[in-house]
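Agenda item 2: nickel (II) ion complex prediction
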Amino acid sequence: MSDVLNINITDEQKRFYQENGFLSIARITTDEEIEWLKTIYGKLFEGRTGEEKGFFYDLARPRGHEGRDELPQVLGPDITIPELRESIYYKNAKRLSSQLLAVDEKINVGGHMIYKPAKYGAETPWHQDEAYWNPEVFSNGLSVWMPLDSVTTESGCMQFIPGSHKENVRWHRHINDDPLIHGLMTDDVDSTEAIACPLHPGGATFHHTRTLHYTAPNTTDNPRRAYILVCSGPEKKRDKPAYRPWQDEEREAMKAAEIDVEYL
Ligand code: NI
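Presented output:
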């Protein structure tokens, strides 16, 4: 198992990623670390950690909604628990991302966790991560997605549209066309082209900022706990911002509803 400390991206894996915009690997951390992460995960979600600051919310329902969450998310778990930055997962994600991005310089790492409890909750609709990101720069990053549970199509493993990273950011809209719902979706996708990536706990997928991806609602008896690290190299400023009006719509709706969060 100590081999997991020394994994590297092979040339073949790099070629696959460049061609398809995603990559799946069987191991990025140890079973022991997964067990440790499950205890942290439980505490963060049960405690709704950082909810008042906007670090815990439901991706699929309006801010401040009543009732059970359908797609709860914790942002920046390593801000609350800095030990996460010392984890094998974190270190491997950072190193392997620098290999995939061909960036030797400092890699910036951000993180979030998305929880799909057993037999409950929403899909994560088709989207490109870059639709959420800063329109003033050319993004130079990828997301590493690691499940703490075995994942299948039925429990919400990652699904990707191969090659979609070579195209532009598509038109996105907020789920239910409600700008108080943070989750974005695009209708501009042919889901028959999707490739599903089932994984065992401690495996991981990598995907480019523009790769279209989706996860189904969890209809199984097991939870689907995912810990995602977003790894970015230096970004280049655009001459003029990319057109992503869904971001302005959300900011305006939040302001009108007098919802004030540190992070949007
Ligand atoms: Ni995403």
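Discussion summary: The longest helix spans residues 31-46.
Owner for follow-up: CH.
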